[in-house]
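tool_log.txt
---
The assistant was asked to compare two proteins side by side. It first ran the structure predictor on the initial sequence, then on the second. Raw inputs and outputs are pasted verbatim so the downstream comparison step can read them without reformatting.
(1)
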Amino acid sequence: MAVTSPNQINHERVEELTRIELAALNARTSRSAAMYERARKSLSGGVASSYQLRDPWPIYLISGEGARVTDVDGNRYWDFHNGFGSMVQGHGHPAIVSAVSNRVALGTHFAAVTEDAIVVAENLAERFGLERWRFVNSGSEATMDAIRIARGLTGRETIVKIFGSYHGHHDGVMVSIGVPYDQIGDRENLASLPYGAGIPKAVSDLTIAVPFNDAGAMERRIARLIAEDRKPACVIMEAAMMNLGVVLPQDGYLEQVREITARHGIVLIFDEVKTGLAIAAGGATERFGVKPDMVTLAKTLGGGLPSGAIGGSEQVMSVVEDGSVYQVGTYNGNPLTMAASRASLERVMTPEAYRHLDGLNERILAGCEAVIERHRLPGYAVGIGSKGCVTFSPVPIVDYETFKASQDAAVTDLAWLWNMNRGIYMTPGREEEWTLSVMHTENAIDAYVRAFEEMAAALSA
């Protein structure tokens, strides 16, 4: 919970500390600086993805071991980044290393089904309660194909998403994500704004955004779309938003969304790329007890290998089985990925692992909350399963509107620098959260809380 009557943050002090910490990090990463100069001559921007950019240079990593990573300068960190949430198994888990090593010798790719793919599908069907599965190679592919399946099933084109949610980098969902607060429009009529250049307006206009945690606004917008002869094919959403830090669903919200979509014959897709297998064995579907028509997975599924999956009811996936919708991909069900996924599901992400993750997250949340209370910071800690964050806001964040209005970006930027200089490798940006792994220990958690305590004390000085 947010602190009652918190102290005001001194932003001159934040700027001073940010300058100090930036200089310290730059001094510690001179080899990353040199590697950046080399990389930028062949890699656009010196990185493989725009989400890896950093000014003045990215931090280049060389290895990962368990719950730690090491950069090219030899700096070792507790890894709370975990590949943007992909490495809940930790780095180099013996079960996954063994499975992939054994599989390599038998062939790395066939574009044909292996038994491991069948076993993984059976396991996912049991965990999520959805009968039919297909595999892809990323979260973006999973959400792209899921939307295509929903459109093929319903014969409709319009889709509904949550304003501020990220569902991958294909055009249909690169809409209404990170946009200026003054451009989002009225929450009853939120704007369909493309996220960056290169997205046709004709495509973005097919995507309608609604606020999170407001089932009434969703229902009213759907009613207007139906009146305009634009009944949606699907609603795609995260059951818990994971790119505004962490925003949990309010009581009854998901149940209302399930009722609205079912009543109107609209396919409900839970994008569980971040939550699936990471916050419970059956992801958010299990954790919140609301069953969608489709689920999309990636990240945690492959244990570090490129992976993704689409699960759906027998009815929804019938259009794939009868050939109406082409769900294809040369590398779908790749043998290495399936071997890693099977080992992860059977031997790593077990009931004991989820108890361990829950215990660690309870410890880090309690530790951070205690720091917030002691120093009367405007903020609160929130999390679930392997995911969590400290949100620097005096009021609870419930949707994109409150996030843009309240979250303190300057303090979040300082926190990233502060953590990196104290051996805590974090995802950059106020939108991101920590991800714990099964290889994290109480020592790792205590190191995180200790660094946070030190920053809070510096801000209070």
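(2)
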Amino acid sequence: MNSVNRAVALRISELLREKNMTQYRLAMNNGISHSTLKNIIHETIKDNLLSTTIKIAGGFDMTVSKFLDSPLFHEENLQI
């Protein structure tokens, strides 16, 4: 069971691999700093803002709904 932050980090990593994209490129695409993205991936940020998640999804050229459409975010897989 993952925390929401862990699920976001795993989803980002999954999509980076799928799209053969670097963290730096994603940060450039979505307008958040590379250090913020790195902190999200390494889970040093306690709570991700929805607005940040929306920007990350946009960096992958997808809606936040599509980003969250993963078994990682199914309620039974999350520790809330």
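---
observation on (2): The two ends are 10 Å apart (CA to CA). The chain is about 60% helix and 0% strand.
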